[in-house]
Amino acid sequence: MRGLYPDNRAVRPTGRLILYHLDSLRMRAGTATDPPTILVTRGVQAHLLELLGIDATRPRWLDTSNRMCEIRV
Predict the structure, then answer these.
(1) What is the enclosing helix (H) or strand (E) of 26?
(2) Which partner from 4, 28, 29, 61 sits 20 to 30 angstroms from 41, CA to CA?
(3) For position 21, what pLDDT does the model report?
(4) Is 44:63 a contact under the CB 8 Å cutoff?
(5) Which of 18, 71, 66, 65 is nearest to 45 (CA)?
(6) Residue ranges per domain, the chain?
(7) pTM for the whole thing?
(8) Which residue blocks in the chain are alpha helix, DSSP H?
(9) For the range 45-52, what are the long-range contacts, defined as Cβ-Cβ under 8 Å and sequence gap of 24 or more?
């Protein structure tokens, strides 16, 4: 993958490199009319989110079709 190092060399991404580049991601809090969004500041972050299957405009916890637990009353 290119873009993990400043000189743009192709390297195999390690967990440490991935977490280093995702560390500076910021979340903009949502309001009543706007959902929360992930603020991407570098292209490599957008590429990593794409590879991980994460949509920056729709955080995972807003997806109600894939429930991890169910509350029954």
Answers:
(1) strand 26-28
(2) 61
(3) 81
(4) no
(5) 18
(6) 15-59
(7) 0.56
(8) 15-22, 43-52
(9) 45/21, 47/1, 47/3, 48/13, 48/18, 48/21, 48/22, 49/22
d(CA 9, CA 55): 26
Tell me how crowded residue 51 is: count the other CB atoms within 10 A of its CB: 11
Rounded distance, CA 47 to CA 3, Å?
9
Q: Which two tokens stand for residue 26?
A: 């910021």
Q: What is the pLDDT of residue 61?
A: 58
Length of the chain: 73
From residue 10, give the alpha-carbon distance in Å to each of 2, 6, 7, 51. Answer: 5, 11, 9, 16
pLDDT in tens, 9-47: 787 878 888 888 888 888 888 788 877 778 887 888 888
CB distance 38 to 49 below 8 Å: yes
